[in-house]
Inverse folding.
């Protein structure tokens, strides 16, 4: 650090045309022992008055006292709202300062800070374009790491945040890859950066017309949108949008049907949007309150992302990453504790670092973990958990804890809201659907003592089958099927809302009668809680 401070002082001592230090540029210059402007040509430095140097150099030393001072010039909090452990570590001055930049095609990539521990590798970066008019977001065709052997390492990155004052997009890259030793050489790579805008296209959708409605777009890579509506329980309506793309470069995200009320506000959905993508298009499912769509003056539009420009180049930064900043308060413990009565499932190992606690789950046979909410009780502080990546490991972001005391705290896993999944049986009595037509018809059955109401009908040559149970403990029928000889023909699930009313579709259906079976279903136990002590305190 002393060597770096001296270089900063020397650079600033010689400069007479910078009123306030440009830290991004300074750090890039330090790597090359020279100060450069954006065009890449070295600046001819001229002496400046000693008094000015003393003020600025003193400021640089004060800022350098915090290892991640440059990253703290940026507000990362909103984009790290689901990675609180990183935000907490950043606020405590943890993390490895990188501050390396590369500029190509008018875009500067800067890696600010790295967090490297036994659970993950996490980078905070920014992208500064020369021009950014109409750019709402950015994406890449390739992003990842390369190790010293040239192996490509994939990871995850969140939606970018635009900082208007600094003129940069802020982002993060996260991967489960962990260096074997304390230090490692790594290369961060981006290829073909895409500048993305969001477009709106008005459509003349009629919410009072239950027939299929088709709207040609033929603009910005979007071919058309086909809308279907399905009335749901409790005054709700399911809208299915089938969007076709004419441009293979169309970004596979951000496509959505929108309703705008008579005061220009977006109409809220009952539940979140569900997406499924296919070659050349996307299928979107959204649930609204029916009366909000039918209000006078409501207008409708298709919202979609559009690539304004692609910078076809490669941005790469070589770094030497170290675990030193986060090795204190990190420990690993083999547990091999059964996870209650979850079949053939154990909590094999716990890895604790200053940013995250991770529980490694092992199973003899794959079985979806039945709980919907996970918490870690660390000496009375509750950490919210989530499952991500390969396997079913549970991850808990460390927030509101003194990392130095983690090893001495008792730790308990808390699992809540259990939903058990079950398979049906071919020996069960099938549900008989008769006189299949466009008319909605209903029949009833039961499974495991739970009553089920079946509604079925044809629409656009597809058979739709809806199920509903009057017992709230019944989570719903997940999948259905019928037999074609000995082959199971599975229905495709189309929607699932909070009223346990899923819908399945069989495309291009031409039968008048059908025996249908339950492939799988769930039982809901919202009040069930499981507590498993993992470690006692000291």
């Amino acid at each position: 650090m002393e060597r770096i401070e001296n270089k900063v002082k020397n650079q600033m001592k010689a400069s007479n045309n910078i009123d306030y230090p440009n830290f991004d540029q300074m750090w890039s210059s330090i790597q090359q022992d020279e100060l450069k402007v954006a065009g890449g040509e070295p600046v001819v430095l001229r002496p400046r008055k000693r008094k000015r140097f003393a003020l600025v150099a003193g400021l640089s030393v004060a800022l350098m006292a915090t290892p991640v001072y440059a990253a703290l010039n940026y507000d990362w909090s909103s984009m790290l709202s689901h990675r609180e452990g990183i935000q907490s570590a950043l606020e405590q001055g943890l993390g490895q300062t990188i501050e390396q930049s590369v500029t190509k095609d008018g875009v500067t990539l800067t890696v600010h800070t790295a967090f490297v521990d036994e659970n993950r590798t996490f980078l905070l970066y920014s992208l500064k374009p020369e021009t950014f008019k109409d750019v709402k977001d950015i994406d890449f065709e390739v992003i990842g790491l390369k190790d010293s052997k040239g192996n490509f390492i994939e990871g995850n990155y969140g939606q970018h945040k635009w900082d208007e004052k600094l003129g940069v997009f802020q982002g993060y890259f996260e991967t489960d890859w962990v260096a074997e030793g304390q230090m490692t050489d790594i290369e961060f790579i981006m290829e073909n950066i895409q500048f993305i805008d969001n477009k709106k296209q008005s459509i003349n959708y009629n919410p009072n017309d239950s027939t299929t409605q088709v709207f040609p777009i033929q603009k910005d890579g979007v071919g058309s949108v086909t809308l279907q509506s399905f009335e749901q329980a409790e005054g709700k309506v399911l809208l299915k949008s089938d969007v076709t793309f004419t441009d293979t470069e169309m970004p596979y995200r951000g496509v959505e049907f929108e309703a705008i009320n008579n005061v220009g506000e977006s109409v809220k959905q009952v539940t979140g949007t569900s997406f499924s993508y296919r070659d050349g298009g996307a299928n979107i499912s959204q649930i609204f309150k029916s009366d909000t769509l039918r209000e006078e003056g409501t207008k409708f539009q298709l919202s979609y992302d559009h690539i304004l420009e692609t910078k076809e180049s490669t941005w790469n930064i070589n770094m030497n990453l170290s675990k030193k900043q986060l090795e204190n308060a990190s420990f690993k413990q083999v547990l091999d504790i059964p996870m209650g009565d979850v079949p053939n499932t154990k909590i094999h190992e716990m890895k604790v670092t200053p940013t995250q606690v991770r529980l490694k789950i092992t199973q003899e046979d794959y079985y979806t973990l039945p709980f919907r909410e996970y918490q870690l009780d660390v000496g009375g502080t509750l950490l919210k958990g989530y499952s991500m990546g390969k396997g079913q490991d549970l991850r808990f972001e460390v927030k509101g804890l003194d990392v130095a005391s983690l090893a001495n705290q008792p730790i308990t896993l808390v699992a809540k809201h259990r939903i058990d999944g079950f398979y049906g049986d071919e020996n069960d009595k099938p549900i008989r659907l008769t006189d299949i037509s466009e008319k909605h018809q209903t029949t009833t059955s039961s499974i495991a003592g739970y009553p089920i109401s079946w509604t079925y009908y044809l629409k656009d040559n597809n058979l739709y089958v809806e199920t509903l149970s009057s017992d709230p403990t019944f989570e719903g029928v997940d999948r259905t099927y019928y037999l074609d000889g000995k082959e199971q023909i599975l229905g495709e699930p189309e929607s699932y809302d909070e009223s346990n009313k899923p819908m399945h579709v069989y495309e291009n259906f031409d039968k008048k009668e059908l025996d249908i079976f339950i492939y799988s279903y769930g039982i809901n136990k919202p009040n069930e809680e499981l507590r498993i002590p993992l470690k006692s305190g000291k």
Remarks:
- The two ends are 36 Å apart (CA to CA).
